[in-house]
């Protein structure tokens, strides 16, 4: 019996697929950051005891509010500060489950010394759906959003001729999101805006979120600070990106709705209020202008036309009369 396949190309393809399926699953995009200057703790220290206690407390509280901050320990050597955040469209059970698993991986790995940030006192873990940070320094009372993770989620470029318009649209979107998130009790907002390029028409989606315990002005300042850095840190005309920080996070994507609509409809409306209002006013003004021009045209031809009736019909029905639309003489 021959061991050579009569279809070598097909055999190689099958072998390649089998190899891919046998490889471990790729990372979900988690980013682990640790500050070496803060030092390390020992596996059996009181700092680790405080850290475990704080992790349990924050995970339980985040189930109801999607974010939580707190401290544990009393002495200078065992006090730990912590913060957790889940994306606003996640469920409570999903949020607590992800955080519990993340804390478990981080703390257990630290105890065995097997992780990149093993036994570090200051650690931040960022993901698309959740994040956590703990430290022996009080970062909760500071205004800094450090450490930040810049994630270029879609590095494709818009056409060069449309780059300036696209960057301006993203800047306006992020400013609207900052205002909307700061005004919400849970400090979370999403939005989308249409964008037309020379090649196609797409939608740009955005999301902004702060820790829920942040006052509105601090949340707004944090998000505006992040938004002002998007073009420089992610890059001009890039179609998607995110900046995750210890206190707030901001993300936009072109053509991909990455958040759940059902949980964010009301917040989305707040974020787009200014854009929708400007658009509506422009439509109304355009219709009134056409109406006035039509009246002038009719008067010049000596025909009777009830201006008051026409204007009232436009205002009441938000549409033009059929004869006005067709411009019949």
TrEMBL record:
Keyword Ribonucleoprotein attached: no
Keywords: Membrane, Repeat, Signal, Transmembrane, Transmembrane helix
Domain Gnk2-homologous: 29-139, 145-257
Organism annotation: Triticum turgidum subsp. durum (Durum wheat)
Name of this chain's protein: Gnk2-homologous domain-containing protein
Coiled-coil residues: none
Keyword 4Fe-4S set for record: no
Top-level taxon: Eukaryota
Signal peptide range in chain numbering: 1-29
